[in-house]
Design brief:
It is built from 7 helices and 5 strands, in the order E-H-E-H-H-E-H-E-H-H-E-H. It is α/β, with parallel strands linked by helices. The chain has a single domain, classed as P-loop containing nucleotide triphosphate hydrolases (Rossmann fold, 3-Layer(aba) Sandwich). Strands 2-3-1-4-5 form a 5-stranded parallel beta sheet, sandwiched between helices.
């Protein structure tokens, strides 16, 4: 593939975006931007515990866009380990403006499966319905942009599907 590309993810928290991103980064030797690092920086800098606080969210979005832009300046393949559900239109434009194509992996896990993942990770399920609605809205508006949809497979199957799909994308 001659055109640079970015691997991006859609899906709710706890759906394994970060783990799959790190696996792909190691397997394909691609740099990764982890948004967990940015979230932690913002919370510490602003002395705010809740990243959904309006001030924290604004700062997080600003820093994320800046770091994405810096990585895209390299014109090399990259992985962005966060969900594009709420920001795909802006990120898609940024990728296109920089001459990038994308490999968009949508983690379309069922609510019962996600409830088990949330429990295993110690997450509260109180926001799960909101996250699922955001993801459903994303799919309704942008499903045509999705390269790979992953459902309720085992973790190792999700890794294999993502790696096989990316390998085919790179080869095309």
């Amino acid at each position: 593939m001659s055109k640079p590309f970015a691997v991006v993810f859609a899906g709710v928290p706890a759906s394994s975006k970060k783990a799959i991103a790190h696996y792909l980064s190691c397997k394909f030797g691609l740099p990764i931007l982890s948004h967990d690092t940015i979230r932690n920086e913002v919370k510490e800098d602003l002395l705010i515990n809740d990243i959904n606080d309006p001030q924290a969210l604004q700062e997080y979005n600003k820093r994320s866009a800046e770091r994405r832009g810096e990585m895209l300046e390299s014109s090399k393949p990259v992985i962005f380990a966060s969900s594009v559900d709420r920001q795909w239109e802006n990120q898609k434009k940024q990728l296109a403006d920089k001459g990038y194509s994308w490999y968009l992996i949508s983690l379309d896990l069922s609510k019962p499966f996600l409830e088990k993942l949330f429990a295993a990770k110690g997450y509260q399920t109180s926001n799960l319905d909101n996250y699922l609605k955001q993801h459903e809205d994303f799919l309704r508006n942008y499903y045509q942009d999705v390269n790979l949809s992953i459902t309720d497979d085992s973790f190792s199957q999700r890794l294999t599907l993502a790696a096989d799909g990316l390998q085919k994308f790179i080869a095309s």
